């Protein structure tokens, strides 16, 4: 399983794990029923503590994205499509709100921001290069 966490990132390590697993589930890279590494295996792989990994798994369980079966392991839960859509919208909305706040902070007008968003949408999110 490919995760990359960094102690230099200001986001707590457990949150980095949560965000990466959540993103893989929402993108369909981890379909329902997929088994995740054990807490111990993932902690070893990421060179972090088992407490950090356990905290990440618990948070994802509370969200309904993971299910732990004692003695069997941790699996991606059978998430309903409407829940996936709702989670995707919430994540994107969070990022868009941050972008709007930054635009306001630097004095950008709404029309400029709309034009910038349209431009990025035309490019598929990446500037031509």
Strand order of the largest sheet: 1-3-2
* SSE pattern: HEHHEEHH
Mean pLDDT: 90
Q: Indicate the radius of gyration in whole angstroms.
A: 18 Å
Beta fraction: 5-15%
Assign a percent range to the helix content. 55-70%
Query: Could you describe the largest sheet, including whether it forms a barrel?
Result: 3 strands, antiparallel
CATH homology group of the largest domain: Winged helix-like DNA-binding domain superfamily/Winged helix DNA-binding domain
- Second rung of CATH, namely the architecture of the largest domain: Orthogonal Bundle
Q: Looking at the chains present, what oligomeric state does this protein adopt?
A: single chain
Number of strands: 3
What is the terminal-to-terminal distance?
Answer: 31 Å
Figure out the total of helices.
5
Question: What is the strand and helix layout of this fold?
Answer:
Elements: H1 13-26, E1 35-36, H2 39-46, H3 50-62, E2 66-69, E3 73-76, H4 81-105, H5 110-122
Antiparallel strand pairs: 1-3, 2-3
Pfam families: GntR
Keywords: DNA-binding, Transcription, Transcription regulation
GO molecular function, one term: DNA-binding transcription factor activity
Structural summary, described in words:
With 129 residues, the protein is mainly α. It has 2 domains: 13-76, Winged helix-like DNA-binding domain superfamily/Winged helix DNA-binding domain (Arc Repressor Mutant, subunit A, Orthogonal Bundle), CATH 1.10.10; 81-122. 57% of the residues lie in helices and 8% in strands. The protein contains 5 helices and 3 strands, in the order αβααββαα. A 3-stranded antiparallel sheet has the order 1-3-2. A hairpin with a 3-residue loop joins strand 2 (66-69) and strand 3 (73-76). The longest helix has 25 residues, at 81-105. The model has no long low-confidence stretch (mean pLDDT 90). Keywords: DNA-binding, Transcription, Transcription regulation. This is HTH-type transcriptional repressor YtrA. GO terms for molecular function: DNA binding; DNA-binding transcription factor activity. Residues 11-79 form the HTH gntR-type domain.
